[in-house]
Amino acid sequence: MAEFRTSIDIEAPPEDVFEYLTTNAGMTAWMGQFADLDPTPGGRFAVDIAGHPVRGEYLVVDAATRVVVSWGFAGSDELPAGASTVEFVLTPTASGTRVELLHAGLPDSAVPGHADGWTHFAPRLVIAAAGGDTGPDDWQPSAD
Questions:
Q1: What distance in Å separates the CA atoms of residue 134 and residue 140, rounded to the nearest whole number?
Q2: Distance of alpha carbon 38 from alpha carbon 44, whole angstroms
Q3: Which in 22, 36, 111, 130 has the greatest CB count within 10 A?
Q4: Residue 27 and residue 21 in contact, taking contact as beta carbons nearer than 8 Å
Q5: Global pTM?
Q6: Phi, psi of 80, rounded to the nearest 5 degrees
Q7: In the chain, where the domains are located
Q8: Does position 35 have pLDDT exceeding 80, yes or no?
Q9: Do 53 and 74 meet the contact criterion of CB atoms below 8 Å apart?
Q10: Is 49 within 8 Å of 32 (Cβ atoms)?
Q11: Does CATH place domain 2-129 in 3.40.710.10?
């Protein structure tokens, strides 16, 4: 299994950034067209992204410091619902928050597509969590 890592800096406090990882409106402000979230350990994590149903559950929810969710796609053989994990670690900085993202447990074949997705969505989180408008999202997975 493989992983993808990235980090971003957001001009907003960790408490604000946390809301974008744990609320329906916050999540869809930067990623996906639909979210149905229950941010408690064992709670539902459901986000539809470009017509793809991401399904899993919240594994760790530490207010304003760390969120871990299981991640996969409903109906997928390659990466079924809940088969991988995404961890967000929020660290206060002088100007806001550093978010370190680790997507682990990916099949090697799924890394390029997820790297493309996270590279697209991470800058949208920077904008949204700082109070900006990300505008419409027309991202589609690459056809690799």
A1: 16
A2: 5
A3: 22
A4: yes
A5: 0.95
A6: -65, 165
A7: 2-129
A8: yes
A9: yes
A10: yes
A11: no
Identify which of 59, 63, 53 has the alpha carbon closest to the alpha carbon of residue 105.
Answer: 59
Radius of gyration of the chain (CA): 14
Confidence of residue 6 (pLDDT cuts 50, 70, 90): very high
CA gap 4, 37 in Å, rounded: 23
Token pair in block for residue 77? 């053989």
Between CA 128 and CA 135 the distance in angstroms is 10
| 95: pLDDT strictly greater than 70 | yes
Secondary structure (DSSP) of the chain: -EEEEEEEEESS-HHHHHHHHHSHHHHHHHS-SEEEE--STT-EEEEEETTEEEEEEEEEEETTTEEEEEE-BTT-SSSBTTSEEEEEEEEEETTEEEEEEEEEEE-GGGHHHHHHHHHHHHHHHHHHHTT-------------
Pairwise CA distance, residues 104 & 24, whole Å: 23
Length of the chain as a residue count: 144
